[in-house]
TrEMBL record:
InterPro entries: D-isomer_2-hydroxyacid_DH (IPR050223), D-isomer_2_OHA_DH_cat_dom (IPR006139), D-isomer_DH_CS1 (IPR029752), D-isomer_DH_NAD-bd (IPR006140), NAD(P)-bd_dom_sf (IPR036291). Its EC number is 1.1.1.-. Belongs to the D-isomer specific 2-hydroxyacid dehydrogenase family. Residues 7-320 form the D-isomer specific 2-hydroxyacid dehydrogenase catalytic domain. It comes from the Bacteria. PANTHER family: 2-HYDROXYACID DEHYDROGENASE-RELATED (PTHR10996), GLYOXYLATE_HYDROXYPYRUVATE REDUCTASE B (PTHR10996:SF283). It comes from Virgibacillus byunsanensis. This is 2-hydroxyacid dehydrogenase. GO terms for molecular function: oxidoreductase activity. Keywords: Oxidoreductase.
């Protein structure tokens, strides 16, 4: 039997592919860090039966209309805003994502970023490395407390819950805003459902954990930042598109809010001259929410299991 062709848009470890070598004919863009050029992706996808892609690939209408026998797209991310779902549906292409396996790792990073921003960890590290530390002093690099403060979680999905669990351990009050109320989460974690404005006004930490959709685009805009406490810290670990970067920059400059910790940006990658990256009270990370070796391996593994299921005529484990 002819093995289906799977095109993989980035170099991934051979050992993960090995168990599927008898099932699939793998073709791969052989670069670890550089995304596949669109032209190459379009060409390869014309011959492919399945695609294992990353969030760096724009799977839009034009792309989907020009594929041949493509049956399934396994997106190595829980978010799938890089894929035009409407066009995929019209074309009958199955799309899968990678929920669950990255939840705890992404929640760890959310908390790490929150704590690093609150306690100015990156500035403190630079302070020593640049040889600025001459004396100890009472308010040297003094930041904000995390324990017993209020966290506002916007988007109480799996990752939101995992962040809330961590917040509970720190004795924090947990407010959340979500499309729908999560009564079980409220009971389990003592979280309180509030409206968006209340969350902004009452939280010491406002965390964006919502997927990027029409409704959440620029949810965190000039108005939203104005409603936050001036001591408030904004953390974004979901998608850059949920925040208006210019409004965030202005709010930070005008000291309307205290600091921001950002793992995501509207256009990625950003350069060091990106306005937000030039501010001392902003920590910028290169979209590493789920980046532990174990979790990234599990995400790839889940993509392969989804592809395998589709070609065996079974229901994929995590279809979007
Ligand atoms: C996702 O999965 O959507 C993250 O942004 C990348 O891990």
């Amino acid at each position: 039997m002819v093995k289906p062709i799977i095109y993989i848009t980035r170099k991934i470890p051979e050992n993960l592919l090995k168990p599927y070598e008898n099932t699939f004919n793998f073709r791969m863009w052989n670069e670890t860090s550089k995304p596949v050029p669109r032209k190459v992706l379009m060409e390869e996808s014309k011959q492919a039966d399945g695609l294992l892609c990353l969030l760096t690939e724009t799977i839009d209408k034009e792309f989907l209309e020009n594929t041949g026998e493509l049956k399934v797209i396994a997106n190595m991310a829980v978010g799938y805003d890089n894929i035009d779902m409407e066009s995929a549906k019209n074309k009958g292409v199955i799309v899968t994502n990678t929920p669950d396996v990255l939840t705890e790792t992404t929640a760890d990073l959310t908390f790490a970023l929150l704590m690093a921003t609150a306690r100015r960890i990156v500035e403190a590290n630079l302070y020593i490395k640049q040889d600025d530390w001459k004396h100890w002093s009472p308010f040297l690099l003094a930041g904000n407390d995390v324990h017993h403060k209020t966290i506002g979680i916007v988007g109480m999905g799996r990752i939101g819950e995992a962040v809330a669990k961590r917040a509970k351990g720190f004795g924090m009050s947990i407010l959340y805003y979500n499309r729908s109320r999560k009564i079980e989460t409220e009971k389990k974690l003592g979280a309180t459902y509030v409206n968006f404005d209340e969350l902004l006004e009452q939280s010491d930490y406002v965390t964006s954990l919502v997927p990027l959709t029409e409704e959440t685009k620029h949810l965190f805009n000039e108005n939203a930042f104005k409603k936050m406490k001036s001591s408030g810290i904004f953390i974004n670990v979901s998608r850059g598109g949920t925040m208006d970067e210019e409004a965030l920059y202005n709010a930070l400059q005008a000291q309307e809010i205290k600091a921001a910790g950002l793992d995501v940006f509207e256009e990625e990658p950003i350069r060091s001259n990106h306005p937000l990256a030039t501010l001392d009270n902003v920590i910028c990370l290169p979209h590493i929410g789920s980046a532990s070796v174990a979790t990234r391996s599990e995400m790839i593994q889940l993509c392969l299991e989804n592809l395998d299921a589709v070609y065996k005529g079974k229901k994929p484990l995590t279809q979007v």
